[in-house]
Write a structure and sequence with these properties.
CATH class of the largest domain: Alpha Beta
Shape: globular
Number of domains: 3
Structural class: alpha/beta
Strand content: 15-25%
Radius of gyration: 24 Å
Bound molecules: 3-methyl-2-oxobutanoic acid, zinc ion
CATH architecture of the largest domain: Alpha-Beta Barrel
Strand order of the largest sheet: 2-3-4-5-6-7-8-9
Helix content: 40-55%
Largest sheet: 8 strands, parallel, barrel
Distance between the termini: 51 Å
Length: 522
């Protein structure tokens, strides 16, 4: 039997980035988009261009610079959204797609729009037609499709196809469907909507009941040829279908999915997962399938014994195939710029000479502090460089005194990025706190005039050894709905904490504009 191509549609930068605390800046988004291209996804949904200037710029920069995948921007079925999306994806030329969506379920029609079926139908058709004026590749999504009455869903899909949609995505927006229902819904629509055979059907699942991946797989067994999801399953509420899980399920159980094949380079899965985790500050849970730290760890004696005798006794996938544990000789402080450049290239980073020089300087400083510099350490050094470029505030100096019987005190000096003219200005202050981290963070608050309430604090060693870099991830509430994550790394964990907090403070500058715009509906 001939198998058909299953398109992998990544929405990490749109639906993934939409979840509280996951926002990324332009450079972080570019890094992720480039890595997604190396992973070989077919479509990158790069953002929602009308929502903010930042989203618009990210979509258009990705459309301009990232080669390979189709680049798409999201739009509601309203002209200003569609026009913004059209402008943003234009640099992608023939690889551009506009994705229009509109709520179709009874609850959305009544309470969100106060409109009857025929009015919703008209808006969908107008939206698709307008998008087609700008782009030949148009995706239509009836939002909350899985809770839409089947007869109306079939009718609106048929209307969208005749208006020119080339892909029909039917989302399980609130993660309510069961695998059987979701599969049956596609089977029904594909069999009954006129023109269905001429378009690609797509699944888009949320994980509110933990069924997002199972629902996506059921959709594939019922005729879907595009699956949408995010790396590490990040996204609104409980997140989206985790793409690495969908991909590895389809690959490992080829016998159950003989009708489809993918063009993904699975060796890039681990690298992509780690990059997304670092860029958006969401730590991957240890027992997460495929990419969690314990996914291939066997601690029980019986298992270890079995694995040693024959790997397949307890392992259904080969971890090396997805880029796990492929260890290379670590670099040391004696390694030169050329060796560093080669290793970074091998890891998939594309740096300008200027960035490479900056990373090399950090690498040397780190090499003085620790014996071996591992690949994960290098990732942290590159990320720090990316943050620095977009930082409003940066850490210049930190000194902390703490100990038994001492009042923890921090002295902090920050640099504030220069405006259009002039040199960066320096600000210094000192303060006390309940511990050294608290003292440092409170002092940062005073200097930056931001007040973040710490909601979560996590510390992990980036690589092996007592001299490992400590990576701190924090989540802080800055008020008015601004809950942001930040990351920082250093061999000194107080410094890592201050950097992580400052990283979140820096994100408030981009995000407050975005929230204000979204609230005003502009
Ligand atoms: O979950 C959803 O319905 C969406 C649409 C915009 C496709 O993300
Ligand atoms: Zn979604």
């Amino acid at each position: 039997m001939n198998s058909e191509r299953l398109l992998i549609y990544d929405t990490t930068l749109r639906d993934g980035e939409q979840c509280p605390g996951a926002s990324m800046n332009l450079r972080e988004k570019m890094e992720v988009a480039r890595q997604l291209a190396r992973l070989g996804v077919d479509v990158i949904e790069a953002g929602f261009p009308v929502i903010s200037q930042g989203d618009f710029e990210a979509v258009s920069a990705i459309a301009r610079e990232v080669r390979g995948p189709i680049i798409t921007g999201l739009a509601r079925c309203v002209p200003k959204d569609i026009e913004a999306a059209a402008r943003a994806i234009k640099p992608a030329g023939k690889r551009g797609r506009i994705h229009v969506f509109l709520g179709t379920s009874k609850i959305h029609r009544q309470f969100k729009f106060g409109k009857a079926r025929d009015e919703i139908l008209r808006l969908a058709v107008e939206g698709v037609k307008l998008a087609r004026k700008y782009c030949r590749n148009v995706q239509f999504s009836p939002e909350d499709g899985s809770r839409t009455e089947l007869d109306f869903l079939t009718q609106i899909v048929e209307a969208a196809i005749s208006a020119g949609a080339t892909t029909i995505n039917i989302p399980d927006t609130v993660g309510y469907a069961t695998p059987k229902e979701y599969g049956a819904m596609f089977a029904h629509v594909i069999a009954n909507a006129r023109g269905a055979r001429d378009v690609v059907f797509s699944a888009h699942c949320h994980d509110d009941l933990g069924m997002a991946v199972a629902n996506s797989l059921s959709a594939v067994q019922n005729g879907v040829r595009q699956v949408e999801g995010t790396i590490n399953g990040i996204g609104e509420r409980a997140g989206n279908a985790a793409l690495e899980e969908v991909i590895m399920a389809l690959r490992t159980r080829r016998d159950a999915f003989t009708s489809v094949e993918m063009g993904v380079n699975v060796r890039e899965i681990m690298r992509t997962s780690r990059l997304v985790s670092r860029m958006c500050g969401f730590v991957v849970q240890r027992n997460k399938a495929i990419v969690g730290e314990n996914a291939f760890a066997h601690s029980a004696g019986i298992h270890q014994d079995g694995i040693l005798k024959k790997r397949e006794t307890y392992e259904i996938m080969n971890p090396e195939e997805i880029g796990w544990g492929v260890t290379e000789l670590p670099l040391t402080k004696h390694s030169g710029r050329h060796a560093l450049a080669l290793r970074l290239k091998h890891l998939g980073y594309r740096l300008t000479d200027r960035d490479l020089n900056a990373v090399f300087a950090r690498f040397k400083a780190l090499g003085d502090k620790k014996k071996f510099v591992y690949d994960d350490d290098l990732g942290t050094l590159v990320d720090e460089r990316a943050f620095e470029a977009s930082e409003v505030w940066s850490l210049d100096y930190l000194s902390v005194t703490a100990g038994t019987g001492l009042v923890p005190t921090a002295t902090v000096r920050l640099k504030k990025r220069a405006g259009t003219s002039g040199a960066p200005s320096s600000y210094e202050d000192a303060g006390t706190g309940d511990g050294p981290v608290d003292a440092a963070l409170k002092t940062i608050d005073r200097i930056t005039d931001r007040r973040g309430k710490l909601l979560d604090y996590q510390l992990r060693a980036v690589s092996a050894g007592k001299d490992a870099i400590g990576e701190v991830t924090i989540k802080a509430d800055f008020g008015k709905g601004l809950i942001l994550t930040g990351k920082g790394a250093s061999t000194d964990i107080i410094e890592a904490s201050a950097r992580a907090y400052l990283n979140a403070v820096n994100r408030t500058f981009a995000c407050s504009k975005r929230i204000a715009r979204a609230a005003s509906g502009s």
